[in-house]
Amino acid sequence: MLRLIDSTKTTISETTDNIGGSMNNVFSVYMEGTEYKTVMKAWKRMLEDQKAKLTTDKNDVSAANAVIPSMSASPVAIFSRLLEDKGGVRLTAAVVKDGQFVSTTASQADADNVKKYLYDFAVRMKKKVVEEEVEKAAKELEKRQDDQKDLVKRKADYERDIEDYKRKISDREKDIQDNIKKQEDAKLQTDDQLKQVEALKSKLNEID
User: Fold this and answer.
1) Under a CB-based contact definition with an 8 Å cutoff, are residues 9 and 75 in contact?
2) Strand partners, 81
């Protein structure tokens, strides 16, 4: 059974949350259809690839000195939280750039960069889910195609068997006709031989 996710457009919301030690400006994205362990693993790997030093506490992941050129020329700190939410995963993150939490109020450009960073990650995770479904569906299709080919082959085999049986039946019908003729010939020969035997017996009886 395929598990298709909704094709909901990926959106990044901005609000405040208790993250990074206090109530701070955060950006949040929901990834429907994704699995918590998969998203958490991918999120931590991406931060590690950007030379960040990670600290993990249950659902919270803090990244210090992350080098993300698309977000900042200098290293940034990211305080994030991942939670399972209605059949998917919600990622919430606060970003500190140059000692200040990024927000639309402080800098539209910086906020847009953070949103783009989270958006790209979320889309990648959602695509991964669908790619896995495509792979499963393709395997199931291949199996069904093989089953169909096998059925077609069986039908062809049955048809060949029928033709073979028809030929055998036709041959046996000819054999039966030949057998009937041979029986008739044999009966004639037997009758003739019987007559000869009777004649010889009669001749034997006539000897005195």
Assistant:
1) no
2) 60, 92
- Could you tell me the two tokens for 64? 């210090």
pLDDT band for position 7 (50/70/90)?
A: low
Residue with tokens 């073979």: 164
**How far are the Cα atoms of 48, 189, 198, 202 from residue 195, in angstroms, in the given order?**
114, 10, 5, 10
Taking only the tens place, the pLDDT of each residue in 137-173 is 999 999 999 999 999 999 999 999 999 999 999 999 9
Provide the angle, in degrees to the nearest 10, between the axes of the packed helices 108-206 and 36-49.
130
Query: What does the H/E/C string look like for the chain?
Result: CCCCCCCCCCCEEEEEEEECCEEEEEEEEEEECCCHHHHHHHHHHHHHHCCCEEEEECCEEEEEEECCCCCCCCCEEEEEEEEECCCEEEEEEEEEECCEECCCCCCHHHHHHHHHHHHHHHHHHHHHHHHHHHHHHHHHHHHHHHHHHHHHHHHHHHHHHHHHHHHHHHHHHHHHHHHHHHHHHHHHHHHHHHHHHHHHHHHHHHCC
- Cβ-based neighbour number of residue 102 at 10 Å: 29
Give the chain's mean pLDDT: 92
